[in-house]
Design goal:
The chain is an all-alpha fold. Helices cover 46% and strands 0% of the residues.
Length: 71
């Protein structure tokens, strides 16, 4: 006695909005955020470029942030 086979494929589940269902892994969000943070630190940590007349509080804050993250 042979078993019955299903010849028709099962329908795919539909999203509630009618579009395709897409799930991204957690690192798909984490990598761009990490890259942005690294580039921001590189720009903020450069010692050669100083703006004339800039508020020194922001510079001190960025220096403190860089020292904290480098430990």
């Amino acid at each position: 006695m042979s078993a019955r086979t299903h010849t028709r494929p099962r329908p795919l589940p539909r999203a509630t909005t009618g579009g395709a269902v897409t799930r991204l892994p957690w690192w798909a969000f984490a990598l761009p955020i990490a890259a942005f943070a690294v580039l921001l630190l590189l720009m903020a940590g450069s010692g050669e470029a100083h703006a004339a007349g800039a508020d020194p509080v922001l510079g001190r804050f960025l220096d403190h942030l860089q020292l904290t993250l480098s430990r």
